[in-house]
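Mods, move this if it's the wrong board.
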Amino acid sequence: MSKINVSTITNRTGTSGPVLSGVTTATNGFHVTGGNVGIGTDNPERTLSVQGSNAMIQIEGTGGNGKQWSIISSDDVTGGAAAAGPGNFVIYDDTSGGLGDVLTLTGVGGSMGLGTQEPGAKLHVAAGNIKVDNGYGIDFSATGNGSGTMTSELLDDYEEGTWTPGTKQGTISNASVGAYIKVGKLCTITAYCTGFSNTTSGDTVEVTGLPFAAQASDAAVAPVMIRYMNNENGSTALTAPIGYLATSDASLRVYQQSVQNDLNYDSLKYEDILNASASIRWTLTYITA
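Not the wrong board. Structure tokens:
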């Protein structure tokens, strides 16, 4: 057997074993130049082999704001360390003496748990969120593709919030705050617009203020609910009104089937608005830029 040269061996009483101190002129402490080191075993199979019931390695930073972390290969023995679940590999914050922040890898099924000792899925995040940097997301490239031309399989955004509708001419005095939900590149908006100040212009009514710019090559249409508005002949009976997102200038418009020309459609004009009670309700989904 090779020798271990140390300058001091300090014996201690009780359950504590001896302390081996390195040579005082050495810059490093205990140094093994070859072979494997075993703790709890006299037949180590790896460079460092730690064996024992609920075998644990503890690392502690003793400087300012340092923490104590423990690494466990848990088994079915009872106790604080075994609480992680038998057969799991666990890293946890042991500063307070209990199972703090936990990273768990299961031995069966290959699951990972963040903040939980018992992951219920391949990746289980407990009492927290997953944050993804801008430009990244969930990659679905392993799934099958449709019959069209696939351009992206990355789900890279989710957002929900509110937006305030405006108009290109005049104001909307009683516009309620609209809502939106964006999933990937698809954005669904809702809005209620009433109290248009301009009721004389012959230009098309355009509602502005979208929460996201629209993709230039794709317009969007959806049903709308309107009241107190004329059609092109001055009748208050609009024919099949439809909401239209004009991507060229990012505005919402209302069109109807033309009563003068069955082969065309006609836009709602500001002069078609009868009074301050006239209103438009929208729900529309469009592709963002």
